[in-house]
Automatic annotation (TrEMBL):
<protein>
    <recommendedName>
        <fullName>AAA domain-containing protein</fullName>
    </recommendedName>
</protein>
<feature type="region of interest" description="Disordered">
    <location>
        <begin position="1"/>
        <end position="27"/>
    </location>
</feature>
<dbReference type="Pfam" id="PF12846">
    <property type="entry name" value="AAA_10"/>
</dbReference>
<feature type="region of interest" description="Disordered">
    <location>
        <begin position="975"/>
        <end position="1024"/>
    </location>
</feature>
<feature type="region of interest" description="Disordered">
    <location>
        <begin position="874"/>
        <end position="901"/>
    </location>
</feature>
<dbReference type="InterPro" id="IPR027417">
    <property type="entry name" value="P-loop_NTPase"/>
</dbReference>
<feature type="compositionally biased region" description="Polar residues">
    <location>
        <begin position="1001"/>
        <end position="1010"/>
    </location>
</feature>
Length: 1024
């Protein structure tokens, strides 16, 4: 078959458009001609755009701030001979992105409870509240001129439609030729200081939208750029310019911007200001970065700066000309008119010489000169609102900086668009790169993350939301989960702890909270948490719940599967747990004894023998130690019987029963449900005054500290009973007492070291930071820190050390101004509390804790610890129902056992005194006649009791199993000031480490052990 004949195509006439095409090519209404990645091109210029990283400014020392300024100045100095365009804009906080990340990060969240606040309602309420705050993030862009464009470059751009088909490489030839220079700029601005990265396609789209539609409301849901798209040709730029118009009446103080948003016409009036004369600012000694001042305003502010970095040779020539003018004027006064020249001329001459000296000596980059124009734009719904906001900007900067309001607002507004020419050369500012760098445009508040619970907002110069994921440090950054919450009375520690516990519980975490005072127990009554929560009042719980042998968890083999030798690691941890139990019971029983008895060396020794004989198995209890003491007393150790009598007397106290188990009653800790929240309270516990010495503690206060220590150990037990990968939390209040007990310090250190391995966030609340700093290694292991209002000067300095913030630079006084309250105000102090928050990753800011969302009103009421007489429940009439206040029904804590029955008063325990008198050990009183021989406050004379050596004790009861590579000896509690009156054996088994006893005291003579043989002490132990 023959091929069909083809009809010749008619030649297209030059200059005539094809059918379906317009009569002329599209030309953008702006100077920009194309965007290729982070490169923009106009007819005469190619610029590379970068996004600057946020720079922290708050809570840094002046030296750190000066280093930052010098780093920025050095980078600007390397850009000599180039034009720069600095753009500062804002982006609404991405609420939807945070909600999506938070929802995905809520792993294993609890099921919804019918009739209570569910997860969807909680998440929606968080978003609505966050959107109502209208907070935004600052975004800073820097455009750097790459090269000017020649005639050939512009011709190639016009012929691009044809050359793209004929010679495709010709269109990209310009960018290919500039590739080396662009790579050099990418590396230069990426250094410390600017910390800039090339702007992404989404960044360029946002910058263009915010610049062309200047002043219009920022779209919260700006459509993302299609994947793989990074180039906008001239026709594509219409996406930014279409639908936006700028109008200005002659001599009007604002320009009107009209645009379409979601098929609606939106109008805003924009006032553009210009930075004028500026006096010498002392940054950072006195003044803050002057571009950061506008962050304090309650409305968004846009910045645009056109800067030219001058070459040294250009500056030198200008200085010489300027100096010639000054000299001529001075000569005109002195020689022509025989008059003294004005002082202003002398100052000009000195300044010229000073600048010349800067350029010829020192670091060239830091002394590079520049000039530029800084514009500020504010918007309002009408002209009146825009001009009012403009006046607020003027008032904010005066008197040190003069802000001008020029005419020609239309041209000034177009300056904000990348590629547009300068509106006018008026209000040009000249200075060094160091002066320009001191503006620190990227300085902002940066703390927290974007996937955690919402804590509140920053309340420094920049206002932005603060989200915090307590498990980000452990799961992502491989850091500790230790958190300190420090503040005085009424600073909001309990409120903050409750907020963190509640919101993370909703997101799937499990918490065990020790709250001695009890307000956090109200969380267990919330409808959405009640089925998964329990409240246990330890002081009314079953006997033995605080048995020192059971509060230390037994290691599980599956926790050591990742070790090189799992079985050996598991056995070693079991040995450490047994040693910890022995040390814990030794400290607890010593704390139950009167101070004068506990501080005697032989008391420690007889307890040591008994504890080692009982061992460290989890099925033991302190009653076995007392029985061992009785056996030793029967073997001739008289002081063992004395100690046993005292412990038996303390055993009869109602609260002491918590240490001795009752085998006939069930253990409430072995629950048949998987509780997400367990709150342990100790309401009515007597604790000593913080900071009071041990010898001033009463018997009840000493017992209270030991019970608090045991309760803290019981709290951390849940960590090791659950899967190590589950997100777990432990919150401990009143931890300032733990730092005074040796095993309390061990607990804090253990939680700090195991928090990463077992995925735990541990919250330690204390009134004084110094109590936590006294724990060895705490400052280096702590991850996040919250510091509330602190008034004492020493406490303020210690709090700053915990925050890792420079001291003695003025931050101490700021801690005393947190959560301010008017002096003359009799209303309840319900204002949200302020804290200085260090997130553990370099961010430190002052934040305001926020729990004011409407959907969390019931949580806020539950955490309200302020007293209110309306909540008092009237006494129950005989035979009638309880009378309750309106809105406050009578409630009881779930899973709270009934009170223990009253115990019968014990019979007197009588011991003959050395002088023939009798002493009742229960009441510490002398029975019968006697003289006034001095006796100890506990009623027992120390004389006549033989002191035995540790070596003999080891030989008698044997040593618990410990591995050779284990250096932990939990029986090293012997005081280095007491003496053994028989020499140590040759095998060296005697304790020679000389560690202090748990009470931290020793004889007053201060004698120390030498060569393992302490010097002899007198029988009465008073050091004389």
């Amino acid at each position: 078959m023959a091929a069909p004949e083809r009809t010749p195509r008619p030649k297209a006439r030059r200059g005539r458009a094809r059918a379906g095409e317009g009569g002329s090519d599209y030309t953008p209404s702006i100077a920009l001609r194309s965007i290729d990645g982070h490169i923009t091109r106009t007819n005469g210029q190619v610029m590379a755009w970068y996004r600057l990283a946020a720079q922290a400014w708050s809570f840094r020392s002046d030296n750190q701030r000066e280093v930052l300024i010098r780093q920025i100045a050095a980078q600007l100095g390397e850009l000599q001979g180039r034009w720069l365009h600095l753009r500062v804009t804002t982006r609404p906080y991405p609420v939807h992105m945070w909600a999506e990340s938070f929802d995905q990060n809520a792993i294993g969240r609890m099921p919804d409870v019918p009739g209570a606040l569910g997860w969807d309602g909680f998440l929606e309420g968080e978003q609505r509240h966050l959107m109502g705050l209208s907070m935004a993030d600052k975004e800073v862009f820097l455009g750097v001129e790459v090269s000017g464009r020649g005639l050939i470059d512009r011709w190639v751009e016009r012929a691009a439609p044809v050359l793209d088909r004929l010679v495709p490489s010709a269109v990209k030839a310009e960018l290919a030729a500039l590739e080396t220079e662009i790579n050099h700029l990418d590396v230069l601005v990426a250094g410390s200081g600017l910390d800039a990265v090339p702007a992404s396609a989404e960044d360029m789209a946002w910058l263009m939208h915010r610049s062309v539609a200047l002043g219009l409301p920022a779209p919260r849901g700006l459509s993302s750029v299609p994947r793989g798209v990074s180039t906008w040709e001239p026709e594509d730029l219409a996406a930014f310019t279409e639908g936006v118009d700028l109008h200005q009446e002659p001599y009007a103080p604002t320009v009107q911007v009209v645009g379409r948003m979601r098929s609606q016409t939106v109008t805003r009036n924009v006032a553009v200001l210009s930075v004028g004369l500026m006096e010498g600012l002392r940054i950072p000694e006195i003044d803050d970065p002057w571009m950061q001042h506008s962050d304090r305003l309650p409305f968004p502010v846009e910045w645009s700066a056109r800067i030219y970095v001058r070459r040294p040779e250009d500056v030198t020539g200008e200085l010489q000309r300027q100096m010639g003018k000054v000299r001529s004027q001075i000569r005109h006064y002195t020689h022509d008119h025989d008059l003294d020249p004005p002082m202003s001329l002398a100052r000009q001459a000195d300044r010229v010489l000073e600048v010349e000296d800067e350029l010829t000596t020192g670091l060239t980059q830091l002394n590079t000169r520049l000039y530029g124009w800084w514009r500020i734009a504010v918007s309002g719904r009408d002209e009146a609102e825009a001009t009012t906001r403009a006046q607020q900007v003027v008032d904010l900067y005066r008197p040190k900086v003069q802000i001008e309001h020029p005419e020609a607002q239309y041209r000034y507004a177009r300056e904000f668009i990348p590629g547009e020419p300068l509106a006018a050369t008026a209000y040009r500012r000249r200075g060094s790169v160091t002066w320009a760098a001191a503006a620190v445009p990227a300085a902002t508040a940066s703390v927290g993350d974007r996937r955690g619970i919402m804590l509140g907002e920053t309340c420094t110069a920049t206002r932005r939301p603060v989200a915090w994921d307590p498990w980000l440090a452990q799961e992502v950054r491989r850091a500790s989960g230790l958190t300190a919450i420090v503040g005085g009375l009424g600073s909001g520690k309990s409120f903050l702890t409750g907020l963190v516990v509640y919101k993370t519980l909703r997101a799937g975490a499990r918490w065990t909270v020790l709250d001695p005072s009890g307000p956090l127990a109200e969380l267990t009554r919330l409808p959405e948490l009640a089925p998964f929560s329990r409240h246990i009042n330890l002081l009314r719980a079953d006997p033995g719940i605080l048995n020192p042998y059971r509060v230390v968890a037994e290691p599980r083999p599956d926790h050591f599967l990742d070790d090189e030798d799992p079985e050996r690691a598991w056995k070693r941890e079991r040995s450490l747990a047994a040693a910890t139990r022995r040390r814990l019971v030794l400290d607890v029983l010593s704390g139950l004894l009167p101070y004068e008895i506990a501080r005697q060396p032989h008391t420690r020794i007889v307890l040591l023998r008994a504890v080692r004989e009982v061992g460290g198995s989890p099925d033991r209890h302190p009653g076995m130690v007392i029985d061992a003491l009785r056996r030793h007393a029967g073997e001739g150790e008289d002081h063992a019987g004395v100690v046993a009598d005292f412990l038996d007397e303390r055993r009869e106290l109602p609260q002491a029963a918590l240490l001795f188990p009752d085998e006939t009653r069930a253990d409430p800790w072995q629950a048949d449900r998987d509780y997400r929240l367990t709150v342990l309270t100790m309401q009515g516990l007597s604790l000593p005054r913080p900071g009071s010495p041990r010898e001033e503690w009463t018997d009840n206060e000493s017992l209270g500290v030991e019970l608090l220590n045991l309760a803290s150990w019981l709290t951390q037990r849940t960590i090791y009973d659950a899967d190590r990968n589950l997100r777990k939390g432990v919150a401990l209040d009143e931890t300032h007492f733990l730092s005074q007990v040796p095993t309390g310090k061990v607990l804090i250190d253990r939680l700090a070291r195991d928090s990463r391995k077992f995925n735990v966030r541990a919250l330690f609340a204390s009134q004084l930071a110094g109590d936590l700093l006294r724990v060895s290694g705490f400052a280096s292991l702590v991850n996040a820190v919250f510091v509330g209002r602190t008034d004492d000067e020493e406490a303020q300095s210690e709090a700053l050390r915990l925050l890792r913030v420079p001291t003695d630079v003025g931050y101490e006084e700021m801690l005393g101004t947190l959560s301010p309250r008017p002096r003359h105000d009799d209303r309840p102090d319900d204002a949200p509390r302020q804290f200085v928050f260090a997130d553990g990753h370099g961010g430190v800011e002052k934040v305001r804790i926020d729990l004011e969302a409407p959907h969390l009103e019931h949580v806020r009421e539950a955490l309200d610890t302020n007293p209110d007489a309306a909540r008092v429940v009237a006494p129950r009439p005989p035979g009638g129902p309880a009378i309750t206040a309106p809105g406050h029904p009578e409630m009881s804590a779930p899973d709270e056992p009934s009170p223990l029955p009253a115990r019968r008063a014990p019979a007197p325990v009588v011991l003959p005194d050395l002088d023939g008198d009798e002493i009742d050990l229960r009441t510490d009183t002398r029975i019968g006649p006697g003289d006034d021989d001095p006796v100890l406050a506990g009623g027992i004379r120390a004389g006549g009791v033989q002191v035995v050596s540790v070596a003999a004790t080891d030989a008698a009861v044997g040593r618990a199993e410990l591995y050779d590579d284990e250096q932990l000896d939990l029986l090293d509690e012997l005081d280095d000031d007491w003496v053994v009156d028989e020499p140590a054996p040759a095998d060296g088994t005697a304790s020679t480490d000389g560690t202090a006893p748990a009470n931290g005291t020793g004889p007053s003579n201060g004698t120390a052990a030498t060569n393992g043989h302490p010097a002899a002490a007198p029988p009465d132990g008073d050091g004389r």
